[in-house]
Specification:
Shape: globular
Mean pLDDT: 97
Number of helices: 4
Structural class: mainly alpha
Number of strands: 0
Low-confidence stretches: none
Largest sheet: none
Order of helices and strands: HHHH
């Protein structure tokens, strides 16, 4: 079984792939190798777009078009796309997502009186 993925591993892979990423026409997706040609709003829209695709699958599950078991793989792929774009958004904003998640998770645990911490 492969080791668990870390935020750091995802960030390193995202940074390596950004300058190599091509659009569906086979052209470079970004004019700057670090993705700085997209503003934060564009990276945010990419995250929201993927979450919208996940929400559409969930809508279809809820209305009975398919079961969760039937849709699980497609839903997982959309959530994975959202996580990837979320890391890229954090990267472009100068945020280390692993540390931000740790701090926020622990703050919420403290606020709600839960001993679970990262």
């Amino acid at each position: 079984m492969p080791a668990e993925l870390t935020f750091g591993e995802l960030r390193r892979a995202n940074k390596r792939r950004l300058p190599l990423f091509k659009n569906r026409k086979g052209e470079p997706a970004h004019s700057k190798p670090d993705g700085s040609d997209w503003c934060l709003a564009q990276w945010s829209n990419a995250v929201c777009g993927e979450l919208g695709e996940a929400a559409n699958i969930i809508k279809k599950i809820e209305r009975g078009d398919m079961t969760l078991d039937e849709a699980r793989t497609d839903l997982a792929m959309e959530l994975a796309d959202a996580a990837t774009y979320l890391d890229l958004l954090a990267f472009r904003a100068g945020i280390e997502l692993d540390e931000a998640v740790r701090v926020k998770f622990n703050a919420v645990s403290s606020r709600v009186g839960c001993e679970v911490r990262l």
